[in-house]
Amino acid sequence: MAKMPKMIADWRKEKRETKQKLKEEKARRTKLLAEARERFGYAVDPRSPKFLEMVAEIEKEEKKKKKLMKRRLREEQATASAAPPAASS
């Protein structure tokens, strides 16, 4: 019984996180449907092959962008650490 308040707090935290993830997923889905509607000019069924193909394409593009950003950051850090510190006079 002594652990009950912590268990309740953990349960509430987990519940909040689950709710937040569902909310984010719903927002993502809505955004994708809106983008599909804009691309194709009509409402698309989320189960259709066209929609699924578009989602895969978008995810691929996002993955490329993320990888490019990571590479640029790594290059910037390498040049910053390789450059000698400026001599102060």
TrEMBL record:
UniProt xrefs under InterPro entries: Ribosomal_mL64
Bias-annotated ranges (Basic and acidic residues): 9-27
**Compositional bias (Basic residues):** 63-72
Q: Which GO terms describe its cellular component?
A: mitochondrion; nucleus
Q: Where is this region: Disordered?
A: 1-27, 63-89
Q: Which residue intervals are annotated with compositional bias (Low complexity) in the record?
A: 78-89
What name does UniProt use for this protein?
Answer: Growth arrest and DNA-damage-inducible, gamma interacting protein 1
